[in-house]
Amino acid sequence: MIVESKLFTLKDGRSCLLRSARIGDADNLIAFMVLAAAESPYLISYPDEISVNAEFEGALIERISQSADEMLLIAEYGGRLAGFATTMKRTSRRKVRHRIEMGITVKKSLWGKGIGRQLIQTIIEASRAGGLEQIELGVFAGNERARRLYEAMGFVETGFTPNAAKLDDGTVLGEYRMMRTLTE
Ligand SMILES: CC(C)(COP(=O)(O)OP(=O)(O)OC[C@H]1O[C@@H](n2cnc3c(N)ncnc32)[C@H](O)[C@@H]1OP(=O)(O)O)[C@@H](O)C(=O)NCCC(=O)NCCS
Q1: 112 has a pLDDT exceeding 90
Q2: Cα dist. 11→51, 83, 84, 145 in Å?
Q3: Potential cystine with 54: which of 8, 26, 80, 91 (Cβ 3.0-4.6 Å)?
Q4: pLDDT digits (tens, 9 = 90+) for 28-58
Q5: What is the residue range of 76's domain?
Q6: CA nearest ligand 1 atom 4, residue
Q7: First-residue to last-residue Cα distance in the chain
Q8: Does residue 65 contact residue 101 with C-beta atoms inside 8 Å?
């Protein structure tokens, strides 16, 4: 799905561009994912596990662009990649085609400016327009910043998986499941 580009004014008064990813973003996105994985313990990957190449990422962007309801949305701040959010189907089966799974990451130095909020708001609006009925996600226990943002955007907790992540330092994290209804 291609989302119409939008300019937002953030809390610091500067503008941020939200747009759908293009194939030419592949290299920047991969570098960003490696950086983000190093900046937060609450993402699923460690930096050394991000092994996709530009060809693979480009093909993913192309597939998502042509999808009726999946999205790869980029935030640009000062002309550089500041964050991104994805929505993807776990399966294309008809029984679950009203649901989509969301992921989001913003560069640490830019946290708290409202970029995450704008990405999620755009995803909510575009997903609803695309006929979806609910956005779902998982958030590791302890990720209070993300959890509070999701709650502020209308997500509610639907479950908890103990023992969901085991960090290299031995820390064990549970995972909350959350959902945002789009039909109300
Ligand atoms: C979670 C994340 C996407 C939020 O992005 P962001 O651009 O900082 O989000 P925003 O600035 O729009 O909103 C931040 C919200 O966090 C909350 N928040 C801010 N500071 C906080 C703090 N110290 N503790 C808890 N919550 C806090 C507030 O609800 C705030 O919203 P508000 O200021 O509008 O009330 C970003 O922190 C991130 O990429 N984290 C690492 C990766 C990650 O955890 N991704 C989600 C995996 S489930």
Answers
A1: yes
A2: 35, 16, 18, 17
A3: 26
A4: 999 999 999 999 999 999 999 999 999 999 9
A5: 6-133
A6: 116
A7: 23
A8: no
| Domain membership flag for residue 85 | yes
Pocket mutation for ligand 1, best pick of 34, 115, 149, 178 (most atoms within 8 Å of C-beta):
149
**Token pair for 156:** 């509610």
Classify residue 95: in a domain, yes or no.
yes
CA nearest ligand 1 atom 44, residue: 42
Cα–Cα distance measured from residue 7 to residue 103, given in angstroms and rounded to the nearest whole number: 21
CB 33 within 8 A of CB 45: yes
Residue 148 lies in a domain: no
DSSP 160-173: EEEEEEE-TTS-EE
Sign of CA dihedral 70, 67, 80, 117: negative
Instruction: Tell me if 184 is assigned to some domain.
Output: no
Ligand 1 atom at minimal distance to the Cα of residue 39: 41
**CATH number of the domain enclosing 116:** 3.40.630.30
